[in-house]
Design a protein that fits this description.
Largest sheet: 10 strands, mixed
Order of helices and strands: EEHEEHEEEEEEEEEEEEEEEEEEEEEEH
Radius of gyration: 19 Å
Oligomer: single chain
Distance between the termini: 36 Å
CATH class of the largest domain: Mainly Beta
Helix content: 10-25%
Shape: globular
Strand content: 25-35%
CATH topology of the largest domain: UDP N-Acetylglucosamine Acyltransferase, domain 1
Number of strands: 26
């Protein structure tokens, strides 16, 4: 059911996201029941693996394009129109329709990626299986995640947000909104349509003061710009790298 998208590890409900812990438990039990073995045709020129889980094979049925050597594990779901470049999608992950998983991007176990999302080259979306009740990383519809961004520890990126290249978000990373006259700091959630870039904050230690990582909200994605164009245009508008 996970492989066909009939159930999801996390799903939107009443304006929020709910984690289905029983599905994570099912995945963990599936690992325990499987034995490690060869996967693929060792007599041909195709890729072969030595693992517990088979690779996904229902791309044609789902209407998905998989570019070699892109790999999705059985038990992940990719919606119609998804393009999987030479990246990796782990078991329990969900990728919505018309999204792009670009070269060397990774979607970790149970991560939830919305419709029309672009994960640029080298993006790392963290996975989580234990504890079962832990919320996965969520990237909502229409978001753009720039090259080499890292999103882990259950961070939620709301719809149509734009992350410039190299943004790193963990549960404890300060997200500093500098759009107003005074900065506002939050953690764990990127607001809808926000435009983020990497930043630093001063922090004093016993040995002195040093710059520690943060993410800066420097603008808002324009309503008037066509969505397909605004992914990169929003970054160019603020003179930021894609």
């Amino acid at each position: 059911m996970l492989d066909e998208g009939e159930v999801r590890v996390a799903e939107p409900r009443d304006g929020d996201w709910v984690t289905n812990a029983w599905l994570k438990s099912a995945i963990l039990l599936y690992f325990r029941r499987r034995k490690i073995d060869w996967i693929g045709d060792r007599s041909g020129d195709g890729l072969v693996f030595f693992d517990k889980l088979p690779v996904k094979r229902n791309y044609k049925k789902l209407g998905v394009r998989c570019v070699p050597p892109g790999v999705a594990r059985y038990g992940s779901f990719l919606g119609r129109g998804v393009i999987l470049m030479p990246g990796f999608v782990n078991i329990g992950a969900y990728v919505g329709e018309d999204s792009m998983i670009d070269t060397w991007a990774t979607v970790g176990s149970c991560a939830q990626i919305g419709r029309g999302v672009h994960l640029s080259g080298g993006v790392g979306i963290g996975g989580v299986l234990e504890p079962p009740q832990a919320a996965p990383v969520i990237v909502e519809d229409g978001a753009f995640v720039g090259s080499r961004c890292i999103i882990v520890e259950g961070v939620r990126v709301e719809r149509e947000a734009v992350l410039g290249a190299g943004v790193v978000l963990t549960a404890s990373t300060p997200i500093v909104d500098v759009r107003g006259s005074e900065p506002s700091i939050t953690k764990g959630r990127v607001p809808a349509r926000a435009v983020l870039i990497p930043g630093v904050l001063p922090k004093r230690f016993a040995s002195g003061e040093y710059a520690t990582p943060c993410a800066l909200i420097v603008g808002t994605r324009g309503e008037a710009t066509d969505l397909k164009v605004s992914l990169n245009a929003a970054l160019r508008e603020f003179e930021l790298a894609t």
